[in-house]
């Protein structure tokens, strides 16, 4: 495997694949914090040049973290279709990029080669793609999933209704949910982050959302984003859950910090299939985000783009209904400013889609990061163009429980109009029945939550 | 992202609820004189955005009910699919206040008033502080010299204040929380060391200070990451015999200290009580029985 190049009269010699992968990343404060990033732009491009000429088999035969050492590596490696891999293993990363961007290559071709790609190969090609490359390639891939209803079709933009409340007050959650529905938001999921990770309150919130769904005959699915073990207990106690949620990391150690491992996910998977309220077959909701492995000191010196891709490698084993990268939540020590958040959002969406995952993005920021609401407007528009399956809907983008800003109910409604996208078909029919939407546009009645009271 | 809250946060929320219930049940007059002019204005603003903008709601009475049920910005109405101008501007001003707080400075006069000795961490500048949390955990060489030469070592209680992620939090709360903490320590007959202000501190800078001064217990009052509801929220992290290598679960925390959260006066008294229990039980964090 070549690790050396000469660029502008200077020789760049890298130690190994791990170093090349890290230094080929666009600038991220998290890679700098880990002490593995390129020293300057030239060294960064030198690493990209070398990476572009490596083959897929170079990537596979130089594991950054071996399957014997790490169960996420094992899950990724076991999921590879060996026949398809052997057809493409001599491709360079540059050839892979050009294949994905070729005008004669579309959804079905990409879906086929995806089965032969490891998460590290997908991360590698991401590092030599521009923002617009990432948008164009991702836009070719259509990933539809079904829980209670189908989402993800071309031309569809769904929204998660996220009606959180700082004290898990059920009336308050319901009020914010009514507001969401009145703007046509909630087709991806009605998903609440609980303040208190306790079985009873999780059960109460699941029952409440189910009650609203049943009363108004809403074709969507519910979820409470507690720890997987809490949800399992709630489900065993009879809580009506359409799917099960968990945050995941790209290494076994990272998952340990989240209090999970493959066995636990398998157990939860079996439970939701037996005792969940939805037909599926897609019954999981995963969340990820660059930097979480470093934050848990579980990164093994691997860069945050590659680790993020490995999250998707783990997620694809479970055929989730939705996957969401919470791109701006983690803080400036991992993604410093708007430029880094924008890049990460586009990378994550592309890498997820390359794993054939139903990708959504929480386009968001905290108050100590250099970003504002205009930046969220921009990134959500870019992701809309890239065919993102769903984004997050929070009242006026301000989550009064998690103390960060995301995208609003208004924003999703606006993106649909500007980009000529529609809610999921079953949900749009329901919106028409309720008099909230007509021919894909909000009616005069839209925006009035009291219609549900 | 792990949005689930850890056990400390859980305890906080429970405490927050208790505090709220206490506030609710307290006679109104008692609270009034704590409310400054500035905060009354804020409250009026708060009320202003809490009015519905829906022109013809289907159920008029329902509007008040939903607005009162949540601090979320709902019943805001729209211009086409976009928010109304004032609703949009309100979000922007709240964000501006939160950002100001991250980049703000603690008032020097305030620190002089309470004779705080000033030291700094290795944070260098604001940008580096945000990018490198590890640097905010280490005291500079100069700071170490100050600790060794000018501060009381092996105190029973070491009090530390730091700007953290919100200078506003210190400016807004220190005048209430610090004297009430001193009163509470005096009542409990506990002796304090030299009061310290750390610029550019992260929570774990208490470990480095603990290593050098070796107090029995240490409390750091530090600005929290600002939210839009308030940029003045402060946390108190407490630890029995803090030193390098301590794990997070060894710290006891009271968060959400601000005038509409846990009241700063009550927090000061409460911290004193907890520190006393730490000294009695010779432990802190998850092992401490409160």
Describe the protein:
The complex is a heterodimer of chains A (453) and B (290). Chain A has 453 residues and is of the alpha/beta class. Chain A folds into 2 domains: 4-139, lyase (Annexin V, domain 1, Orthogonal Bundle), CATH 1.10.220.70; 145-452, TIM Barrel, CATH 3.20.20. Chain A is built from 21 helices and 16 strands. Chain A has helices at residues 17-23, 29-33, 41-53, 56-61, 71-78, 82-88, 93-101, 107-114, 119-127, 131-139, 170-182, 199-216, 228-236, 252-257, 262-275, 292-295, 304-315, 338-354, 373-385, 409-419, 425-434, and strands at 4-7, 10-13, 145-146, 150-151, 158-161, 189-192, 222-224, 244-247, 284-288, 322-326, 359-362, 390-393, 398-399, 404-405, 437-438, 441-442. Chain A has an 8-stranded parallel β-sheet. In chain A, helix 11 links the parallel strand 5 (158-161) and strand 6 (189-192). Chain A starts with a strand and ends in an 11-residue tail after the last strand. Chain B has 290 residues and is an alpha/beta fold. Chain B has helices at 7-25, 28-32, 37-49, 60-69, 85-103, 108-113, 126-131, 141-150, 167-187, 205-213, 264-281; strands at residues 117-120, 157-162, 196-199, 217-223, 234-240, 252-257. In chain B, strands 1-3-2-4-5-6 form a 6-stranded mixed β-sheet, with helices on both faces. Chain B starts with 6 loop residues before the first helix and ends in a 9-residue tail after the last helix.
Secondary-structure topology with pairs:
The complex is a heterodimer of chains A (453) and B (290).
Chain A lengths: L3 E4 L2 E4 L3 H7 L5 H5 L7 H13 L2 H6 L9 H8 L3 H7 L4 H9 L5 H8 L4 H9 L3 H9 L5 E2 L3 E2 L6 E4 L8 H13 L6 E4 L6 H18 L5 E3 L3 H9 L7 E4 L4 H6 L4 H14 L8 E5 L3 H4 L8 H12 L6 E5 L11 H17 L4 E4 L10 H13 L4 E4 L4 E2 L4 E2 L3 H11 L5 H10 L2 E2 L2 E2 L11
Parallel strand pairs in A: 5-6, 5-12, 6-7, 8-9, 9-10, 10-11, 11-12
Antiparallel strand pairs in A: 1-2, 3-4, 13-14, 15-16
Helix pairs in contact in A: 1-3, 5-17, 7-9, 9-17, 9-18, 10-18, 12-13, 13-15, 17-18, 18-19, 19-20
Chain B lengths: L6 H19 L2 H5 L4 H13 L10 H10 L15 H19 L4 H6 L3 E4 L5 H6 L9 H10 L6 E6 L4 H21 L8 E4 L5 H9 L3 E7 L10 E7 L11 E6 L6 H18 L9
Parallel strand pairs in B: 1-3, 2-3, 2-4
Antiparallel strand pairs in B: 4-5, 5-6
